[in-house]
């Protein structure tokens, strides 16, 4: 990298402490020495589960998302509790939302969904060896589940029926995995602070 | 769909009106009749440009993102001004950030990146027939550009070097387009309010 792109924190405050959202406002120094402010959501991070059956079909959810006033097609997902292990969270969320447990778990990737104004990260896991059981939805949580094939999901991505980023990305990963082009090799998340290629 | 999943607004307020972020807090009715609150960011939406050269290499940016204290690899992108046409915004942002203009534009898809707490939508465009020119970065905007091939970018996605969702999704779309599997056919965005398949 040629340019120094880094922005440096001077000081900051909690600008908004709502029921669900927390906004931090930091005063910062830009690369050219000028001062400005950055506001962003502090988020605990979340897990996303790609539940893949032995016949290569996939378990999904329909859930109403209030900010966009619309039902979305999504993979099971949920916020990481404070101090919770990511894989333990993935197992908990899959069971709570769908009732399914899985005998075979693989970490796939970390994604960042709103880098301009949120520190949220999503940890994607592949879940295989699925066994049905009773769901235990949180109070105030309403969703329904359905099964689809990866070709059906890819068609929904290309036609605009699936627009949720974790679901678009999870579907592309599943295509690569089922085709044998990408192997789910890692069993624990990559370190959060590095983004180096292993090569 | 079996269940009624819809949540209905009762009333609401601007809970936080910051320098950059605006948070709405609405009181709502859940599908079972219970009342609760939803807080979410109001966002004007953004465009993302996939600049594809005749040799199938792609133009990208490195940009520091303060919430995650890290330089990200990204496609050119920017917020839609109030009332601005999406395609006009894509042309403006590509030229401002990279200096490039393009003779051939295709709308690819809309994605939603934070459906639990933001109404942000991102409109992805493919830009071909590229011609270099001078960049005109906004005050306080610092970035550098570079070129890479789609196979190189896919390797960066699978290895965790690229984690920004618009860049992950744009790279998968470019692979489909270059392989001839998905055609960029639409020249204007799909209607915002429908998510129906054409079939």
Automatic annotation (TrEMBL), chains A, B:
Signal peptide: none
A GO term for molecular function: hydrolase activity
A biological process term (GO) from this entry: nucleoside phosphate metabolic process
UniProt KW keywords: Hydrolase
Gene Ontology CC: one annotated term: cytosol
Substrates-to-products reaction catalysed: GDP-alpha-D-mannose + H2O = alpha-D-mannose 1-phosphate + GMP + 2 H(+)
Domain of life (superkingdom): Bacteria
UniProt cofactor(s): Mg(2+)
Keyword Hydrolase: yes
Ranges where the Nudix hydrolase domain occurs: 41-170
Similarity field: Belongs to the Nudix hydrolase family. NudK subfamily.
Protein name per Swiss-Prot or TrEMBL: GDP-mannose pyrophosphatase
Organism for this UniProt entry: Massilia psychrophila
Lineage: Bacteria, Pseudomonadati, Pseudomonadota, Betaproteobacteria, Burkholderiales
